[in-house]
Amino acid sequence: MILCALACSGATAQTIKKVAPGVWSITYGTPETFTPSMFKKAPVESNQSAPEQPPVDIQDIRFKTTSRGCVLELPMDDAEKIYGFGLQVNTFQQRGLRREMHASSNIVGNVGFSHAPVPFYVSTNGYGVLINSSRYVTFYCGTMQKAVDLKDNTARELGFTTKDLYSPHNRYSDRMIVEVPSEKGVEVLLFAGPGMDGAVRRYNLYAGGGCLPPLWGLGMKYRGKGDFTDERAVNLAGYFRENNIPCTTYGLEPGWQSRAYSCSFVWNQQRFPEPAKFINKMDSLHYHLNLWEHAYTNPVSPLFKPLKGKAGDYMVWGGLVPDFADPKARAIFGAYHDTAFVQKGIAAFKLDECDAADYKDAAAQWSFPELSLFPSGIDGEKMHELFGLLYQKAILRIFQNQRTWLDVRSSGAFASPYPSVLYSDMYNNADYVRMILNAGFSGLLWSPEIRDTRSEADLIRRTQTGVLSAQLCFNSWYLSNPPWFQIDRAKNDNGEFLPDRKELENRIRSLSELRMRLVPYLYTAFSAYHFDGEPPFRALVMDYPSDDTARTVDDEYLIGPSLLAAPFLDGSSHRNVYFPAGNWYDFNTNRKYAGGRSYELDMTLDQVPLFVREGSILPLADPVPFIDAQTGFKITCRVYGGQPAAGSLYEDDGETYGYEKGKYNHVVLKWDGNAGHVTRSGNFQGSLYEVKNWEKIQ
Amino acid sequence: MILCALACSGATAQTIKKVAPGVWSITYGTPETFTPSMFKKAPVESNQSAPEQPPVDIQDIRFKTTSRGCVLELPMDDAEKIYGFGLQVNTFQQRGLRREMHASSNIVGNVGFSHAPVPFYVSTNGYGVLINSSRYVTFYCGTMQKAVDLKDNTARELGFTTKDLYSPHNRYSDRMIVEVPSEKGVEVLLFAGPGMDGAVRRYNLYAGGGCLPPLWGLGMKYRGKGDFTDERAVNLAGYFRENNIPCTTYGLEPGWQSRAYSCSFVWNQQRFPEPAKFINKMDSLHYHLNLWEHAYTNPVSPLFKPLKGKAGDYMVWGGLVPDFADPKARAIFGAYHDTAFVQKGIAAFKLDECDAADYKDAAAQWSFPELSLFPSGIDGEKMHELFGLLYQKAILRIFQNQRTWLDVRSSGAFASPYPSVLYSDMYNNADYVRMILNAGFSGLLWSPEIRDTRSEADLIRRTQTGVLSAQLCFNSWYLSNPPWFQIDRAKNDNGEFLPDRKELENRIRSLSELRMRLVPYLYTAFSAYHFDGEPPFRALVMDYPSDDTARTVDDEYLIGPSLLAAPFLDGSSHRNVYFPAGNWYDFNTNRKYAGGRSYELDMTLDQVPLFVREGSILPLADPVPFIDAQTGFKITCRVYGGQPAAGSLYEDDGETYGYEKGKYNHVVLKWDGNAGHVTRSGNFQGSLYEVKNWEKIQ
């Protein structure tokens, strides 16, 4: 429905459409091709109420074309704060910053580059804005002051230090300025609230709803060394079973292929001479198998010939770059993976190197140039922004009624429904935590994988962060033995183990068990991601946009409706924790904290930095060693505080897309003051949970 | 003269013009506006012979427009090496690299960003290529392999380390690929040799000839602390005279202005209450005064109102960005400087911050956005590339018959005739030396200024590098006392001096005296820069393009016809020195080295890493304490080897542009085997040199 099309003198010509309840599309100038929305899923309907009017006065949005492309200006008020832009790494609140949407495996200082840039931001005023462009869009979030705003009294005094001289000066303007290069038009999507959380939910639902992982995806993933043979992989997989360390997924790194960098997508004859036997063996150990790859297709690959006419004009690592903007190229790529791997028992893939590295030291630069041209007509710049998304689409198309759980190194706009976690080789601990929060603003999931650690305490604290994230993953691609045997890389490879290795192993076991205890709660949080768009992991500001402290907290986050995590960084056991309004319980000790203020807290390495909202019923499972179709969970409900709201558990088969056809249950948990009550409703015939205990916590 | 205009099927439509002897212009597509050449000076005629045919087969140059702009491909042969791209910092030979021409005060890893990017490269095959664009042009110097080149046998084996996995793979292609964003056409200028040196000379002459500094510009410049008062500046200036340390120029840093960051361009009433008196006093001490500034115009400035309608739509540090692409804005800016400063005795300016800083930590980012628009019609991206150039033009226009010598933080294409030295806050010692070489490929001059040093030895070695560069400059903008009093910043400010301060002072005096001894030689080398285009400071490869070692040497360089410098880095007294063909003498000991090989050399701190070509007559002056209109030089000619070629000295008034009207002399120095002979020819009436001694060195 086109609401209006204005071209009055002075005003910007525009076409306004309401594209979903609470979602408006405003189009200026000549439409762009290969936009993110061209590849998106259909929206999931929102049950939120929607305002009748757009959340931003469209007449206040200015558009112009320029010699370089086009420029938009959107108004901001003085108090408004801005979050989002995808998987931002080293910043949180973005007002006052320039953010350049540029898919990149490194951050180039601090300019907005990201594995998963998303041209979407959300405001504390309760609305979201998406620039539907696959260009390297730049957002000047109130950084640039216009000359027309210049007042004679803004002159400042002399400075004599570098800090004085370069300090920002009136940099917080009241305009969000957006540049879209090379285009003469742009579509803006406005997402109404209510609230920041409401705007983000609306974005996620418009994208197709958040993903629902397979149940097994929520357990621990372990990725073994890159040059392991089948035998060494099986041995390591056996180690977890023998030592009762829960683990659901085993990942193979490049050595499973006959060629890598670029990829053959063919089993390595020396290391894996009998893939079927290997897959069977891992299946008998109850593992889901995940295969590493990237998309650059080596000349020896069976995919090379079929893709040769469907690839970009420049190579990466001597391999073709498939034209994933072409559905036929995605179909060829997917069909091969289906026949060669999925039909033979492979559960998932790790889609590596689908970002790029141009802005780093020359020797480490790689990827196709932006000037590349692909047969579909897409250019290299747009392909960079979309490659991770389209690569996921190529793989996901083969998972028709079987869910999968991908690792992916790049993603973008409207990725909410993709069952994928992002990961990185940048290992800054504070960044890894912040990325959990930032991912939640833009329909992304982040896996703070564990590999490099500074100390044993750092290993434990990083593992805790993994437990409290979208994925618990150890990525030991260069370690012969698990990192808890030895954190030093050379010694680990050499078989020189830490003297207290068993103690560390016990802690890791406990943490993987804790992850298993949380699986029903997390799975339920993911169901809210799918059906309501609610990010399972999200910044405090999302739920408390008016709380000035919450606006700045970038190292704590909410998990589902009831939990707050406050990870320890760099092996520390001490930190400041801010609690928003309400009362909060220490998950370990049940000590109660009044919200609206901060506390200096210490925790032993056995304690996890997890807190429970008063009034919650928290379902915790008995840990299971693995997850398969037969897995059921025995639940203990912890009741926090005197008058808890009803809790809930989401239930389905954990494996298929039956839930899209209504095959799921809501298991409602109620506490009447003395006893707990469980009621189940829905169309799923099975039963995933058995509630066996209720624990009252005051 | 248009030679041809082709638009045959398959070939690229183009217009070919010979624009000067040995210089061809090839234009593809729609011409760009605000190109570098639009602002260039008229060519100086070359007395080199010029080939009839372009040095590159124009039919092998491919052009196409794309969704992002346009792309050029130029052929390269397998053995060819590439140099240039302006003031490149951390790389030397550029084949195998991606170089992005982007004016920036930091290098963002290693991607080609530079204070002074120049879209010009020169090949060991003896030709130069300039892309006449003010866009952020990117050169892929054989880094990108086309898919059509893919052979089945290029597949490589598995890698399991980060190094293996990311190593370049067939990255050296045979194509130079150039992307010009936002434009649908481009002009390419081809410069013929003979040789690399010939191509660079032709480029410099086409640009208008290399600059000829005022004689005083070649002596030591000292910049005092930013918050000095007139009294403290005069005291420090007096210190040099009292202690017989030659110094010709004193520079005032920001504190001379009433407001800075942005600038008022008005004397500070507190620090400099009586500017005329101060200028007189410094003049009586025989100093040339240099004033720091940048162009961003503070609202309190007298320049603010006149520039308000002639400035960009975005501010920098709360100041206007003058539209220097408009000759009227340049005229206003220049005229003010003329009246307020030059007519009152100011000799020169330091034009700071005319680059930009976007790709660094958010807190330190500054400058106007690329999407800026200026009244002349130029956009922010082009203005970034041209701002340093145009700022120089605005200032230089007032120096009609009086030469000046500027410091400038950014420059670009066709800057050869501008009497300016570039400087930086990046203080890596190896980079500082490499930048001397790189500047020489593109008509730029680099001042490896001295400020931060690690040790006393580092101070001495850095000073030696300054002596052997286009400018010897101490930039003590944050030091209360000269760095040889105390290298530690806090202690220096505190008046805690080094115990061996006097010994250091003696060394600095000797080095400034050495600089004075070299002034006639350097001045003569600069005259060759002006009249013949020969860079006074240049890489060995420029003169020895077929010498495989010379192609890689990025830490030695030639000065004029006879000298080779091999600076010591980081305070070291040991290094490997490569000598090209011929014999070379140690300047200090007269020890002779056979060329075509390398030597491990040690030198004491009293020795300078300077070598003299056998067969040279090297004129050395008695040091003078300062340089003014009365200065004359007493010369000793050192004769190196048995059968020296004639030496020469260039002679003029050292101050005016009379040389452009032929008012100069050549003083020819000849050695007949027993005695020296001096002959003078030319139209200059005075005499700058008196040759008093000849020294024979075997």
From TrEMBL, chains A, B:
Superkingdom assignment: Bacteria
Name of a matching Pfam family: Glyco_hydro_31_2nd
One annotated GO molecular function: hydrolase activity, hydrolyzing O-glycosyl compounds
Every Glycosyl hydrolase family 31 C-terminal domain range: 533-618
Domain (Glycoside hydrolase family 31 TIM barrel): residue spans on this chain: 212-525
Record-linked InterPro entries: DUF5110, Gal_mutarotase_sf_dom, GH, Glyco_hydro_31_C, Glyco_hydro_31_TIM, Glyco_hydro_b
Protein name in UniProt: Alpha-D-xyloside xylohydrolase
Organism: Dinghuibacter silviterrae
